[in-house]
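Incident log, entry 3
Record: MFS transporter (95 residues)
Problem: checksum mismatch between cached and fresh output.
Input:
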Amino acid sequence: MQDFFSWLGKTLGEIIRFVVDLLLVFFQNLGASARGFFDGLASSLGIPATVVSLAVLLLGLWLLYLALRALLRRSLFATLIWAVLGVTVLSWLIY
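Fresh output:
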């Protein structure tokens, strides 16, 4: 009877170890993929791959999104304001 529980504990431990190793490899590859994506994005735009520059990029894209939403609401004045702000922020970043 003790041999059965010893085998069961060993098998359960190996399964847990396999799952942990699998998740570890997955998240390491996920991090490397995200890092490669941001490095490629930054190099194609000609900006440094820092958190601040990526945050400014997201801010500029968000402002352009707001301009698009204002355009779809047929608010020309708001569209112009958001678009000018978005292009200004992106022009500071991308030179």
